[in-house]
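ok so I'm stuck.
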Amino acid sequence: MNQNTGKKILDVGCGHRKRVGAVGIDNNPRSDADILHDLNHFPYPFSDSHFDEMYATNVLEHLDDVVKVMIELHRIGKPNALVSITVPHYAHRNANTDPTHKHFFGVHSFDYFINGTEYGDFKYSAVQFSLESVEFDKGSPKRYLFDEWLLRFANARKDFYEIRLANIFPLAQLTFVLRIVK
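replied:
not stuck anymore, here's the structure
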């Protein structure tokens, strides 16, 4: 439990950058994890409706089954818990360079879990989330003035950017903030 907020926070695949005040879970014994667990094996070692916030930063692309992970995060998250997921954007070379990446993501990748979206009726699972935000390169350092302009443009016009410009001017990652619906 985070001593400052009283919230139970989970850092999924924490690696060496575990969030302050969070419980870290990772399969790497050299990580900062509090709990060693293979994230491809379910269930995770937590009770139902346990966490107020969960963070999965640059981990989902490495796992076998994104749908099963989302179902598991939904199970262990409290009603209305926030889930922040950062993944590489499919058009960036880093998404395709790492040989351990199994999945690629675009701005609508999590719409399959959200009612009222174009893809929300596919129902790959019974779990539901609401979308709080999706943002390109959230918190990434900007090196050039063009980077800032491109980022503002892409975040304001996500579909246009992804359809028309992403392969010419690729941005590195996407951060989705979802809220668990139970």
